[in-house]
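Anyone up for a design puzzle?
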């Protein structure tokens, strides 16, 4: 059986990471983008479902993802589920400003969620955070 060659061909898709970072147009943030991220506000929301409501709660939270991620000022909007019981969900949101988040709370999809959440939730804890470093 013949051995396969291990030499890299010129133009191979496997390049060292140092070359990738030196290419023009690599993922460097502009000064304005860095300031937007630095001034961004993070919201962490922990949600615990009422007994037997975890599947409905997850469906309602998933329905928020698409429209919210398209909103102006939404930098991150991710949903997590607790890896271990008790059942719980976490929303990790990053907004360019508090004003962008306030605008989010007036959208149709958020108002729909707000009207339904009390029947699904045993508890909801939320806190705003600002980045230090």
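Challenge accepted. My sequence:
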């Amino acid at each position: 059986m013949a051995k396969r060659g291990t030499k890299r061909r010129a133009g191979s898709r496997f390049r060292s990471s140092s070359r990738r970072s030196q290419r023009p147009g690599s993922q460097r943030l502009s000064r304005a983008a860095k300031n937007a991220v630095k001034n961004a506000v993070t919201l962490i929301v922990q949600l615990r479902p009422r007994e037997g409501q975890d599947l409905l709660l997850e469906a309602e939270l998933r329905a928020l993802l698409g429209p919210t991620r398209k909103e102006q000022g939404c930098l991150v909007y991710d949903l997590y589920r607790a890896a271990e019981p008790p059942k719980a969900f976490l929303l990790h949101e990053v907004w360019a400003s508090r004003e962008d988040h306030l605008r989010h709370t007036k959208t149709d999809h958020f108002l729909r969620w707000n009207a339904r959440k009390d029947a699904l939730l045993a508890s909801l804890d939320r806190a705003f955070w600002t980045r230090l470093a």
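A detail worth pointing out: The longest strand covers residues 121-130.
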